[in-house]
Design the sequence.
């Protein structure tokens, strides 16, 4: 995952909500810019808040109600969603699988 930004309002909201579990994955890079999912200087390979649904080929966002502004613009491109390791990918895989089965 590369350079997913957090907005200043994201940072303010998470501080107000005392979401240290999210803030620990925010990297302040200077000049009012923040990047997400970096912890102790190490960038996560995928969003730390995406979880697989048990027994299903789908995923969900565990911080949906307070997700970053950058995540509120979905749908992004499929390539971006794959790169983010995001919740919607599971749904795409399910739809693709259903479509390919329907064509048989
Ligand atoms: S919407 Fe996706 S990338 Fe954004 S916080 Fe939730 S799981 Fe992570």
Sequence:
């Amino acid at each position: 995952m590369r350079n997913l930004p957090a907005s200043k309002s994201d940072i303010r909201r998470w501080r107000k909500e005392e979401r240290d579990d999210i803030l620990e994955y925010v990297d302040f890079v200077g000049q009012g810019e923040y990047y997400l999912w970096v912890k102790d200087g190490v960038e996560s390979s995928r969003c730390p808040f995406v979880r697989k649904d048990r027994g299903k080929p789908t995923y969900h966002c565990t911080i949906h109600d307070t997700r970053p502004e950058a995540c509120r613009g979905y749908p992004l491109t499929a390539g971006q969603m794959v790169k983010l390791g995001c919740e919607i990918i599971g749904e795409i895989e399910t739809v693709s699988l259903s479509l390919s089965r329907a064509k048989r």
Remarks:
- The pocket of iron/sulfur cluster is lined by residues 47, 49-50, 61, 63, 67-68, 71, 84, 86-87 (CB under 6 Å).
- The chain has a mean pLDDT of 80.
